[in-house]
User: What shape does this take?
Amino acid sequence: MMRVDIWLLAVAPLDMRCGMDTLLARVIAVFGSAQPHTAYAFTNPRANRMKVLIHDGFGLWLCTRRLHQGSLHWPRGEQAQISLDAPQWQALTVGLPWRKLGPDMGIFIT
Assistant: This one.
């Protein structure tokens, strides 16, 4: 499987009809460039769908995720991008509140 060392979220919503070339252009606009072993995640305005562009060191992968119920806990605000660690990324992709992970990254804080 591909190695991902860095997970980055683009805060601004994206039209999910876009393809790999449009996503790559958005990665360059928001993050500056596509770096190896980095995943770049985007969501739609309702935050129930996500597209992830992954640079594996050789090329690009495009992955999608759709929640059938609820929405992703996507950040809102003035920041254009946010970096996550592996436990936060795993929580985000299943629809859990990843910002509430505790200091040991395994316990949720209420």
